[in-house]
Amino acid sequence: xxxxxxxxxxxxxxxxxxxxxxxxxxxxxxxxxxxxxxxxxxxxxxxxxxxxxxxxxxxxxxxxxxxxxxxxxxxxxxxxxxxxxxxxxxxxxxxxxxxxxxxxxxxxxxxxxxxxxxxxxxxxxxxxxxxxxxxxxxxxxxxxxxxxxxxxxxxxxxxxxxxxxxxxxxxxxxxxxxxxxxxxxxxxxxxxxxxxxxxxxxxxxxxxxxxxxxxxxxxxxxxxxxxxxxxxxxxxxxxxxxxxxxxxxxx
Length: 251
Ligand SMILES: [Zn+2]
Known about the structure:
The chain is of the alpha/beta class. 39% of the residues lie in helices and 19% in strands. The strands form three sheets. Strands 2, 3, 6, 7, 8, 10, 11 and 12 form an eight-stranded parallel sheet that branches. β4 (75-76) and β5 form a beta hairpin. The chain is globular. Bound molecules: zinc ion. Residues 42-43, 100, 104, 139 line the site of zinc ion (ZN).
C-alpha cells in the first residue's frame, strides 16, 4: 500500500476511535479498590505461548489471547502465528481465548462482520473452546461505530488501544489499553503504568504480540515481559484475564 494511503487509513482509525470514546453512551461505572491488570496478546504469535504464557504462569497468573483463526500457523517475517494445537494448549493451561476476527481486517472493511465472527467462533470451537469467546479485540485497534450493535450482541467487552487506564465511567465496547512494544527500554519503563494504577486503582490492560529474544517492533523480550509481570505481582495488583476482571467488578 502506498505511504499516503496508509497515512489516511491511520488517520481514519484514530478519528473513529476518538469519536466513539467521546460520544458513545453505553458506559458502566468501574469500581475497584484493588489495582487490576490484564496482560493481553493479539493475533497471536507462537512465542506469546512459548514465552508469554510461560512467564505469566511462573508468576501464578493467566492472560487473555485474542486469536484470529485466519492467521493460524501463518509464517511472517520475524514471527509464526499460533497453530490450532497451540490454542488448545493455552486453553488447557487456564488462559482465556478471545476473538480478534477471523480474517484480521478492520471493522469498516468487513462487509459481512457477523459471518466473519461466526467463522472465528467455529475455528475456536474446533480447537476446543467450548463456549463462544466473550471478549474481543479490534484488529489494528480500529473500532467503527456501525459495528457496535453486532459486537454488543456477542461480546462482554471489546478492546482498543488508547494508552490509558480504565477508570470511572468506561465503555465496555471500547476498553483502553497500553501497548508493550519496542524499543526495549521504552517497554521496560512501562512499569510506570503499573505504579499509576497502584496509586489510583482502576483496570490497566496491556497488549502486545510476540515475546521473543529478537522481537518484532510490536513485541518485547522475555526478560522485559517478566520484569513487567513481576512488578505487577510484587506491587499487589490483581493480575487476571479480561473475563475474570468482569466478575471482579460485577459487570
Ligand atoms: Zn491484530
